[in-house]
């Protein structure tokens, strides 16, 4: 364990009210890995990655995500059940309790950055109770050089104490676990949950507030990559729709897999320094880039590991949401630094479990705005006793849980960007085909990839009757042919073999779109309203 010598720096935590802690500062990934194996928190897997369990929580807990209501946030934040207000005094008291909890412990401290564009750089200090959480921070944030560390300026602090449990009655939380952001204190408190995603999505929420209000920059829940000719593509989508999967394309350089900013001078930059991929049913054949990234240094979460150290990616006994984090350089073809020029194509990814949206369609500017504000995907209801019915799920800007401002603030910025750049916007259904969930099946990944590549390579023709069919229910332009994809796959109606069932279900979804959009109608222009499904 000699390599830490590079970063030797004595860190005192007393300024945070944490007393007598043993500080392990800026350990390298192999040291953190070793510590986890030695203390029984982790296992080394066959590929060299570390596997850990995050505990009771294997996903984020959006109902326990709070924002402190203060001078900075009071009139800016869109308060409600997404951005839940938290009292300032209670925040300070809870913080003191966490400081006491962390005192006298062996802690892991890491300095890192967010924002790959140096003009936006945010210094982040993370204080973790567990070594594996610190490895996550190493993998996911931008890693500072030795020089960076010497002059490190800490802008934000994350206190991450999974073992600390709040007392809701006294502390003002909903239950034991919480993630609370204070913009005045520039601090995030995370307690009662070991789910690592809270750490990265905490900083994402911070940037989603700061960038639009202070830098006229649009933050986006999207992945991004760039082609050989320097053309940037971005992929918006809610969880599980394919941002990480589809942005990892060996023929394009990866910019980032989840969080990006779009600057006034039309640069796209990654907020992060790593990827956080779902690994459920991962196969080397289908997703070679992600599979190959799961090597030494990568951190697997909540997977099952056999005696022989092999990971069984089909095993859902702990959770469906099995994950891996790794530094972005574990992917072979990456853009360095993680920035791109103005996008030429935007993809809205949706996993439509009703199986009625076309697998690819082109959107007019009005439709693009409408779909961005709607943020549609579908959830599958509990699989109890085989009863399965998709539930439409709308999340504005394809990321409402992370957006502190009113959705129209982000939508207005994106609409202005679309107008200014003339970017193509596509709606991609990575969900079901041939029928709804239970009858149809998930769209083949190879077809989705072929459709995206055809759009990127300008192989989908022009918007005219010969090349495109206008969908009668959704009004979107559906290409008639696409290289590498059978024509019949492009028409969801044809894949059903049941016109009546198809149209009934399509109407049902269109009606859900309209019901959801009601709350935005007052803000929407004529063009945006014209982007809604013509039927339903
Ligand atoms: P999150 O925001 O939670 O990170 P994400 O948008 O990055 O979610 P992915 O991690 O890419 O989502 O998950 C997509 C999942 O769906 C993967 O497990 C992938 O293998 C699977 N999948 C199956 N068929 C397709 C398809 N046609 N297109 C994209 N993904 C598909
Ligand atoms: Mn992802």
TrEMBL record:
- Chain positions recorded as Mn(2+) binding sites: 201, 221, 258
Q: What is its pathway?
A: Carbohydrate biosynthesis; gluconeogenesis
Please give the function described in this protein's UniProt entry.
Involved in the gluconeogenesis. Catalyzes the conversion of oxaloacetate (OAA) to phosphoenolpyruvate (PEP) through direct phosphoryl transfer between the nucleoside triphosphate and OAA.
- Entry protein name: Phosphoenolpyruvate carboxykinase (ATP)
* Organism, scientific name: Leeuwenhoekiella aestuarii
Which of this chain's residues are annotated to bind ATP? 201, 221, 237-245, 287, 323, 448
On the tree of life, the source organism's domain of life is Bacteria
One cellular component (GO) term of this entry: cytosol
What subcellular compartments does it reside in?
Answer: Cytoplasm
What InterPro entries does this protein map onto? PEP_carboxykinase_ATP, PEP_carboxykinase_C, PEP_carboxykinase_N
Q: What is its EC number?
A: 4.1.1.49
Q: Does the keyword Cytoplasm apply?
A: yes
Q: Which cofactor does it need?
A: Mn(2+)
């Amino acid at each position: 364990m000699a390599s830490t010598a590079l970063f030797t720096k004595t860190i005192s935590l007393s300024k945070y009210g944490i007393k007598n802690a043993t500080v392990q500062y800026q350990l390298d990934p192999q040291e953190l890995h070793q510590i986890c194996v030695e203390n029984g928190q982790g296992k080394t897997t066959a590929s060299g990655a570390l596997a850990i369990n995050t505990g009771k929580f294997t996903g984020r807990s959006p109902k326990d995500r709070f924002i402190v209501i203060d001078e900075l946030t009071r009139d800016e934040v869109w308060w409600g059940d997404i951005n839940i207000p938290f009292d300032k005094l209670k925040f300070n008291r809870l913080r003191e309790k966490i400081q006491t909890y962390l005192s006298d412990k062996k802690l892991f401290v890491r300095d890192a950055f967010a924002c790959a564009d140096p003009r936006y750089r945010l210094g982040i200090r993370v204080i973790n109770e567990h070594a594996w959480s610190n490895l996550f921070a190493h993998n996911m944030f931008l890693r500072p050089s030795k020089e960076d560390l010497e002059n490190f300026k800490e802008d934000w602090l994350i206190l991450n104490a999974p073992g600390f449990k709040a007392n809701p009655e006294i502390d003002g939380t909903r239950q034991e676990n919480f993630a609370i952001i204070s913009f005045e204190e520039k601090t995030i408190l995370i307690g009662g949950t070991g789910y690592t995603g809270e750490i990265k999505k905490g900083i994402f929420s911070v940037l989603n507030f700061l960038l639009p209000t202070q830098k006229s920059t649009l933050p986006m829940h999207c992945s991004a990559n760039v082609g050989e000719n320097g053309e940037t593509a971005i992929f918006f989508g809610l969880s599980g729709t394919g941002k990480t999967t589809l942005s990892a394309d060996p023929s394009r350089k990866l910019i980032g897999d989840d969080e990006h900013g779009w600057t006034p001078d039309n640069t796209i930059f990654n907020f992060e320094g790593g990827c956080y991929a779902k690994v459920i049913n991962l196969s080397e054949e289908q997703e070679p880039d992600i599979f190959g990234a799961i090597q030494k240094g990568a951190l697997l979460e909540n997977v099952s590991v056999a005696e022989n150290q092999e990971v069984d990616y089909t095993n859902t006994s702990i959770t469906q949401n099995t994950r891996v984090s790794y530094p972005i350089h574990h992917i072979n073809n990456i853009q360095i630094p993680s920035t791109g020029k103005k996008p030429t194509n935007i993809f809205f990814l949706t996993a439509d479990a009703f199986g009625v949206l076309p697998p690819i369609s082109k959107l007019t500017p009005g439709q693009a705005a409408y779909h961005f504000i709607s943020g549609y995907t579908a959830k599958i209801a509990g699989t109890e006793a085989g009863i399965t019915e998709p539930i439409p799920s709308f999340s504005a800007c394809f990321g409402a849980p992370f957006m502190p401002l009113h959705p129209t603030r982000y939508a207005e910025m994106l609409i202005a960007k679309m107008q200014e750049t003339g970017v193509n916007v596509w709606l991609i259904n990575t969900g079901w085909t041939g029928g709804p969930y239970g009858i149809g099946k998930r769209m083949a990944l190879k077809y989705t990839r072929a459709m995206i590549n055809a759009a990127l390579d300008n192989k989908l023709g022009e918007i005219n009757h010969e090349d495109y069919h206008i969908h009668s229910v959704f009004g979107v332009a559906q290409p008639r042919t696409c290289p590498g994809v059978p024509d019949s796959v492009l028409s969801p109606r044809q894949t059903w073999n049941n016109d009546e069932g198809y149209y009934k279900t399509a109407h049902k979804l269109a009606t859900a779109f309209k019901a959801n959009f009601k709350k935005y109608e007052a803000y929407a222009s004529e063009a945006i309203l014209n982007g809604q499904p013509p039927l339903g």
